[in-house]
Write a structure and sequence with these properties.
mainly alpha; 355 residues
Length: 355
């Protein structure tokens, strides 16, 4: 692999807030009389000030040379796959302005969700850090003092308190280890989410993890339906739309479902039956798809399904975020209990031996 490919894989994606602003401004440019190349050039001048001058310069040059925004964002290397593929869909469908508006709203929601997650995690994280400092002080400074006191007491005091001392030390070490592991995991996830390789790995992990599997499934359905709606509205047939919409699905399971849907339709299965067999949508929505197929309004049905699935995903994620803070606080309560045991049990043992 050459150096440029390695650098592309390591390059970080733009934050969701910047992506939302970029897509929103580009949508306004596309809806005005400004040429795409001129509009992109002005956006790139602003973007270059964020520390990505070379990448934004490449974006501007590619648009001016090819006239294709899809090729530009693909070669830039700092846009997520979903944005790149939705731009492609928008260009193919002749609805690039609608695609950019949709992307702007999508990344605005993503930015809000990330802020909600951060606000829910900050307090427990600070508490974790404080507890780690307390535990470290106990293990390094306090416990050795207790051990010396027990040795000075001798006899029955030592035999009575040794087991409690070992238990207290073990509880403190385990609590400190758990806190350290939690910080390492969170830091690794944050770093991975900003690179292309790490982003794909997190998508695979999230689509299989029990707590987030359902959310990712709804996001997959929403992305698939939104892309299909845009393509069908442009006049493409269902098979052509499926081929392009498949690229907008970021997880492997969703891509397999879309590919299987095309295979079934090639065998003569109707669009609605293919979606049912691949379980792309919940059974509740299949009646809507059948009705749309019978009336020739698959595009409107897909648009509605995209909105419904997106709303469900947002609600599910909001519920998950709402339980993060109380869950972490409960974990902190257990760790605090371990700290108290680490201090009080040896002291209780010593007092009982003296008494």
């Amino acid at each position: 692999m050459d150096t440029s490919n390695k650098q592309t894989k390591r390059r970080r994606y733009l934050p969701a807030s910047e992506l939302a602003m970029f897509c929103g401004q580009l949508a306004m440019i596309l809806q005005s009389d400004i040429l795409l190349s001129d509009g992109v050039a002005s956006l790139c001048e602003e973007g270059a000030r964020t520390g990505n001058a070379q990448a934004f310069g490449r974006l501007r040059d590619t648009v001016q040379e090819t006239g294709s925004l899809y090729l530009a964002v693909k070669q830039a290397g700092f846009f997520p796959p979903y944005l790149v593929n939705m731009v492609r869909v928008g260009e193919q469908a002749g609805k690039l302005d609608e695609a950019m508006e949709s992307l702007s709203r999508y990344y605005e929601r993503e930015d809000q969700i990330r802020k909600s997650i951060r606000s829910a995690v900050v307090y427990p994280a600070v508490l974790m850090l404080m507890m780690a400092v307390v535990i470290a002080v106990l293990l390094i400074k306090v416990m050795p003092v207790f051990a010396q006191v027990f040795d000075d007491l001798g006899g029955q005091a030592v035999s009575t308190s040794n087991a409690m001392m070992r238990f207290g030390m073990t509880a403190g070490i385990c609590a400190l280890g758990l806190i350290g592991l939690a910080f390492v995991v969170v830091l690794a996830l944050l770093m991975a989410s900003r690179t292309q390789k790490g982003y794909r790995a997190l998508i695979r992990l999230g689509s299989r993890f029990p707590l987030t599997k359902g959310i990712f499934a709804k996001l997959t359905s929403s992305r698939f339906a939104s892309a299909m709606a845009m393509l069908l509205q442009s006049g493409m047939d269902v098979d052509e739309s499926l081929e392009l919409a498949q690229e907008c699905v970021t997880d492997e399971a969703g891509r397999s479902k879309a590919a299987r849907c095309r295979e079934l339709m090639a065998q003569g299965v109707t669009f609605a039956d293919a979606l049912e067999q691949t379980e792309m949508f919940e059974p509740l929505y299949l009646h809507m798809v059948r009705t749309g197929s019978q009336t020739g309004r698959e595009d409107m049905v897909m648009k509605k399904l995209g909105e419904l699935c997106s709303g469900q995903a947002d609600e599910s994620l909001s519920r998950l975020v709402s339980v993060i803070e109380p869950t972490l606080v409960a974990v902190m309560s257990v760790i605090i209990g371990a700290i108290l045991l680490a201090v009080m049990l040896p002291l209780t043992g010593a007092m009982s031996a003296i008494g």
